[in-house]
């Protein structure tokens, strides 16, 4: 196991000075603004930014088109649903009318049958009374 030795003041000062020198060297080694490599990197960055803007604009345009298309489809679906609902209501009304007319017809048949039965019953009653020779009050024999 290595023995840890604390650095003294002189070693720390020398290390700090060397770090400062290294930073200064890196700064001095930086190319100037008119260097062809720097200009090429700037042009490349500018081209990348322009391409990104074009892609974002295309993406926004496609999104707007998609939203518009979805809105049209939604409107068409709603119109179709409304038309189907109206058709169903009309069919239900027609069916209700048919049922109502059938019910009225059934009631009319029932009333006609009742009237016919009553007429037959009255005829039998009148014939029976005529055979006995007596007519009830309020009843005229034919």
Radius of gyration: 54 Å
How large is the share of residues in beta strands? under 5%
Secondary-structure class: mainly alpha
Task: Describe the main β-sheet briefly.
Answer: none
Mean pLDDT: 90
Query: H/E order of the elements?
Result: HH
Structure summary, number of beta strands = 0
List strands and helices in order, with pairings.
Layout: H1 9-29, H2 36-132
Protein name: DUF6481 family protein
Organism: Mesorhizobium cantuariense
Biased composition (Basic and acidic residues): 112-125
Kindly describe this structure.
The chain has helices at 9-29, 36-132. It has one domain (33-132). The longest helix is centred in the middle third of the chain and has 97 residues, at 36-132. It has 142 residues and is mainly α. The chain has two helices and no strands. The model has no long low-confidence stretch (mean pLDDT 90). The protein is 83% helix and 0% strand.
